[in-house]
Write a structure and sequence with these properties.
The structure holds three protein chains of three kinds. Chain A is mainly alpha-helical. In chain A, 76% of the residues lie in helices and 2% in strands. Chain A contains 13 helices and two strands, in the order H-H-H-H-H-H-H-E-E-H-H-H-H-H-H. A two-stranded antiparallel sheet of chain A has the order 1-2. Chain C has twelve helices and no strands. Chains A and C meet through helix 1, helix 6, helix 7, helix 10 and helix 11 of A and helix 7, helix 10, helix 11 and helix 12 of C.
Chain lengths: 328, 329, 318
């Protein structure tokens, strides 16, 4: 077990270093850092001085190493646009994105799993057909379209919910801000959370349904039925457990992609999060922010993958035996 | 109890397909007496497993029972509502499937699976059910049962798993156990052990067995009576030693002749020419006629099971055989 | 289990006429059996044709700035009070006819979708063939890259590639090269699935007798890969391509909506929706509504077709 964890950790670090090098390449070679940072009036000598100061004359390997070390300390340099440390800019916006992603994840799980189980067990009922139809829409339509649709319905026509921003937020501790404690904050959270959650929700629903149907066809379920166990015992004691195990992996990985899709949602709803910052940085060629965002996302994905692998090993007893042996 | 434990009368099973219904079982009839071991033998596709599944109503759609009756201890069970059928499964009729590797839920400990079944059919509390489960594990020959009871299925070998499966099938003490190819997926060295476990346990608990297999050797060793199936029909029944020594139906004769023996040294194994017809292409009349060396005009009409002494054969050759006589063509 | 090979023929023998053969064809039968699938097929066909014939069907050329008059801007659709009969679906903020803009936008969206899928397939199939055929460290490297890329969602990768290109190109080049950038971004973000499938098939095929025979004759590796192995691994590739077409379209629309795709001078459906969102509250709903409906219909239809295709070709569900 320990060997497994160590192997995965090493692999994760490998991925992070690889991504870090890509980020470094972006940082150093796309456009010219010095020219981005200074005004037009700066003389050539001053630019050369700046270049030397920033260490841009050093060999590439040294620069790369320096970049990686700084990155490990969450020091990503200064934004071209805002002239502020990138870490501060991202940090200020992180709570907004994390809160949105968290609420959306909970929502997608809380709705997706029961719906999936229901549509698997009651395939012919009208409600199940409805869910299936909705799932097709949810998985087909692009996230931004759903967001725009929701805005039109609930903000323009019905005027129930605000169409942009986060509402009033409450500060917790020195860094975190939350919108969960205010009425306007909650109202502002509803549409973005649903928009972000919808794709994941339908994905989870379809996955749970497919897995459950597959499990219900298996021999051990047939044998359980042949032993006269009640349908309830079969569905919830036997089938559900076996359904959820493979679902966990996918769900975990998908939760990571909620972070990616938050870029879109934040744009649609003008949500002041990291994603919006990232998009602005793309439009304005603000490389330090782009590089930093890339690394942060990589970190989050790698961590999520690691946790999912560990959970999987804990939940499926068959894996515990194999994990201690190296992969063939 | 008087009368047979299980009585299957004229059972018909169909599959609904896009091109019309396919008849998989076409009028299958047989009886099983209490405590008796009936072997059901035939090649793959003859309908043996379907018969077993039909008895406990576990046919997968689009399969369904399309006719006939199934009586357990004199009462019909083929037309029961699902809730009543659930009471019968496990409690009065148990079933063992072929592949022990997939019969057990990999995520549950075997003790849980046993205790759950026991509690579902008796009113025992969990602690007593667990004790009972340990006792069952001991009975099927699992060493150190009190330790192994908390193990997961993947920690057992195939043979051990099948023993657990037997325990699961018998733990509610059914009067009839349907064993569907219980040894086919096991190593040859393990097969004999499993058969002996099954036989001893059922004898000890007074359960009858419907032993479905394509292995004539197992039948000869284990069964009291045998029913031979071909293309969804029963072609011969009788006491096992009589059928083996002196088969009546030409198909059974072909089967026996095809088994190599140590006494006669033939240069080639005898074969039955042709192959069993597909469900969609079963000829009218006797299904075996196209391959039968003794076929004659009468075979264009389907023969019923004709009584010959205390045996039966679905063959026109015995149409005029006086009861008690020994007719051979 | 009993063999349920339901290949029964009619009592008088198989129907070998064309109509009979068509009816017997399982694929066609399963297509026609579901009304929804047929509807999806029809919608897809209509939209494809509309996009193809856009130049001839569209009332105006929305990309020609000289043809648009700002005085016509923000006109509602012709079937509403205040609408101009020239503009069936109204005009946008630049005075462009919405119907024309939608048709041209549809064409651009589909073009990018197809090209992106083609590029992704080309890269993926190519790398998959090489990876499966060579084995060894080439295989390891390619698969490692694939694994790393797979940890991230495709849209993020596309966004990143798009962003880097944006930053690297000077402002005036951005608009012109938007099409190419999008195709490359989508292609590069989608190749992995093709590579994996093709690699698996290639690894199976390369040990087959016909490949060994070709090697014995002395055919070069490239020749063997292209003429012998490639045709045999294309099957699953087609399925993946069909299903990923919808994804490609969505990716392009999303990138355009975010402002890093096609510019307003040559808008795709995503760009139009972006423009339209600004006018939602002031009441000019048509700028958002019609492109949205078109995009939704297109993606839904293609997805339904992809669903049907996947189920129809899945041997386990038969």
């Amino acid at each position: 077990m320990i060997a497994f964890i160590l192997r995965r950790l090493l692999a994760s670090i490998g991925v992070l270093v690889a991504v870090g090098l890509i980020a470094f390449a972006m940082f150093r070679y796309v456009g010219d850092p010095v020219n981005q940072m200074v005004g037009i009036e700066t003389s050539v000598q001053e630019r050369a001085q700046l270049r030397h100061q920033l260490g841009l004359d050093d060999p590439t390997i040294v620069q790369a190493a320096r970049f990686l070390i700084h990155a490990a300390r969450f020091d990503f340099g200064v934004s071209y646009q805002f002239k502020q440390p990138v870490a501060d800019l991202i940090g200020a916006r992180m709570p907004a994105t994390l809160e949105l992603a968290f609420v959306a994840s909970i929502l997608s799980l809380a709705a997706g799993v029961p719906m999936g189980v229901y549509t698997a067990l009651h395939r012919d009922k009208a409600l199940a057909q409805l869910f299936q139809a909705l799932s097709l829409i949810g998985i087909s339509l692009p996230t931004f379209l759903i967001g725009v649709l929701l805005i039109y319905l609930f903000a323009v026509v019905l005027r129930w919910l605000p169409s942009f921003g986060r509402g009033d937020v409450v500060h917790i501790g020195s860094w975190w801000t939350t919108g969960l404690l205010t009425a306007s904050g909650l109202k502002s959270l509803i549409m973005p959370a649903i928009t972000l959650a919808l794709f994941q929700m339908t994905l989870i629903m379809r996955l749970v349904r497919a897995e459950m149907l597959e499990v219900m066809r298996s021999d051990y379920i047939r044998f359980a039925r042949a032993r006269g166990l009640s349908e309830r015992a079969i569905h919830f004691h036997h089938a559900l457990k076996n359904t959820l195990v493979p679902v966990i992996t996918v769900v975990g990985l998908q939760l990571g992609s909620i972070l990616a899709f938050s870029i879109i949602t934040e744009t649609v709803f003008a949500w002041p999060g990291m994603g919006q910052l990232f998009l602005q940085s793309i439009q304005n060629a603000d490389i330090p922010i782009m590089a930093a965002y890339l690394l942060l996302i990589a970190l989050m994905f790698v961590v999520i993958n690691l946790i999912v692998d560990l959970i999987y090993a804990v939940v499926d007893p068959r894996l515990r035996v194999h994990l201690d042996r190296p992969q063939a | 109890m008087t009368g047979p434990l299980l009585s299957v009368r004229d059972l018909k099973v169909e599959f609904a397909t896009r091109k019309g219904p396919l008849v998989a079982l076409d009028g299958v009839s047989f009886d099983i007496a209490p405590g008796e071991v009936l072997g059901v033998v035939g090649e793959s596709g003859a309908g043996k497993s379907l018969t077993g599944l039909a008895i406990i109503d576990l046919l997968d759609p689009p399969g369904r029972i399309a006719g006939g009756e199934i009586l357990l201890a004199g009462e019909r069970i083929d037309n029961l509502p699902p809730a009543k059928m659930r009471d019968i499964r496990g409690r009065r009729v148990g079933i063992i499937f072929q592949d022990p590797m997939t019969s057990l839920n990999p995520l549950l400990r075997i003790g849980d699976q046993l205790a759950e079944t026991i509690m579902a059919h008796t009113s025992l509390p969990r602690k007593d059910a667990r004790t009972r489960a340990i006792a069952w594990l001991a009975e099927v020959g699992i060493p150190s049962p009190e330790k192994r009871i908390d193990a997961y299925p993947h920690e057992f070998s195939g043979g051990m798993r099948q023993r657990v499966v037997i325990a699961l099938a018998l733990c509610a003490e059914p009067a009839l156990v349907i064993a569907d190819e219980p040894t086919t997926a096991l190593d040859v060295s393990v097969q004999a052990q499993i058969i002996s476990v099954l036989k001893n346990l059922t004898r000890r608990h007074g359960a009858a067995v419907m032993l479905i297999t394509h292995d004539m050797g197992v039948i000869a060793e284990t069964a009291d009576r045998v029913a031979v199936m071909y293309a969804g029909r029963i072609v011969e029944t009788g006491e096992v030693h009589e059928v083996v020594r002196d088969p009546l139906h030409p198909y059974t004769q072909g089967l026996m002749a095809a088994i190599p023996t140590l006494e006669v040294s033939a240069r080639r194994l005898a074969q039955i020419p042709g192959a069993m017809p597909r469900l969609s292409a079963i000829p009218p009349g006797c299904a075996f006629a196209p391959r039968c060396p003794k076929a004659f005009a009468r075979c264009a009409e389907r023969p019923p099971l004709i009584a010959v002494a205390d045996r039966e054969a679905a063959c026109w050759l015995y149409e005029h055989a006086p009861v008690g006589a020994d007719a051979r063509a | 289990m009993t063999e349920i090979a339901g290949g029964g023929e009619g009592a008088s023998g198989p129907d070998r006429s064309l109509a009979g053969r068509l009816k017997d064809n399982d694929l066609l039968a399963s297509f026609l059996s579901s009304k929804i699938t047929v509807a999806a097929g029809a919608v897809t066909l209509v939209l494809f044709l509309a996009a193809l014939l856009a130049t001839w069907i569209a009332p105006t050329d929305p990309f020609n700035p000289a043809a648009n008059f700002l005085s016509d801007s923000l006109d509602p659709p012709s079937f509403i009070a205040g609408g101009d009969p020239r503009f069936l679906l109204g005009t946008d903020d630049q005075g462009r006819d919405m119907l024309s803009a939608i048709l041209y936008g549809l064409r651009v969206s589909l073009a990018i979708g197809f090209c992106g899928v083609a590029l992704g397939a080309a890269i993926g199939v190519g790398l998959g063939l090489i990876s499966g055929y060579s084995g060894g460290w080439i295989d390891s490297i390619i698969m490692r890259i694939a694994d790393v890329q797979l940890t991230f969602p495709a849209i993020l990768i596309a966004l990143l590639l798009d962003g880097v290109a944006h930053a690297a190109l000077k402002a005036q080049n951005r608009d012109e090269s938007a099409f190419a950038v999008l195709v490359v971004a989508i292609g590069l973000s989608f190749w992995v699935q093709y590579a994996r499938t093709v690699r698996a098939s290639t690894m199976v095929e390369k040990n087959r007798d016909y490949v060994l025979a070709a090697r014995l004759i002395g055919l070069s590796h490239a020749r063997i890969l292209l003429t012998h192995i490639l045709p045999n691994v294309m099957g699953p590739v087609m399925v993946i391509a069909t299903i990923s077409l919808a994804l490609a379209i969505i990716t392009e629309a999303t990138l355009s909506f975010l402002g890093v795709g096609l510019p307003p001078t040559e808008p795709s459906l995503g760009t139009l929706i972006r423009i339209g969102q600004n006018y939602l509250f002031s009441g000019e709903w048509w700028i958002v509504a019609f492109p949205s409906l078109t995009l939704a219909a297109l993606v839904l239809a293609v997805n339904l077709l992809g669903d049907w295709l996947r189920d129809a070709l899945n041997p386990r569900l038969k």
